[in-house]
Amino acid sequence: MDMEYSYFLFLLLLVPCMILSAYASAKVSSTYSKYDKIPCASRMTGYDTATALLRNRGVNDISVGVVRGTLTDHYDPTKSIVNLSQSTFGSASVGACAVAGHEIGHVMQKKQGYFPYKLRKILVPITNIGSRLAMPVIIVGILLDLLLFAAKEQPYGQWILYIGIGLYGLSTLFALVTLPVEFNASRRAKKMLVEDGILSAEEVKGAKKVLSAAALTYVASLLTSLVYFIRIFIMLFVLLGNRRK
Hints:
Layout: H1 3-35, H2 46-56, E1 63-67, E2 74-76, E3 81-85, H3 86-89, H4 94-111, H5 115-150, H6 156-195, H7 201-243
Parallel strand pairs: 1-3
Antiparallel strand pairs: 2-3
């Protein structure tokens, strides 16, 4: 495979991923906006939902706070806090309850030792380091391999190159592990919201649409990361193959 063909293949794969990412981003915004305008019968806000779900499950060591923005909701296990965005915290809507329930789903994953959640937690610091080091290591590997090849020494540069590819691949692995974590948190949310009477069975249908739209963004992120990983993998091996001909 030559460089021109590999680049064409990269674009062929990347363009659909870009379209999917744009669609997913627009979908989650429009879906949340729609269901944030529909009040839930229980009149419980995002804050009420989060605190009730925690209390009903005997979780007393997690606080609920508010952060700026829209859909910036997240669970921070290092600080034992569920941060709800301003758009979720005080809104008594189906959309707000769905998002708050999703974040409590993550809390319950940690409390119950859900394996994919634990694996993602382990990968976070490794992925952060790997993403910063990957490209510099790859560049050093190429330069070193060129020098060693010219001197007809052992190809130590290739091994550095492989390490760089592996570090870059950590971000793809993280995106892959994130999928079951997010889908599972959404399933937990839907179940808890009905069990605790926060949303009716009919209202949960709307909550499901909000959570499904959000999940699509993670699918798009994984596919995009995978395409870039394949691109750099092929590009570097094509470069090495052409140099040795």
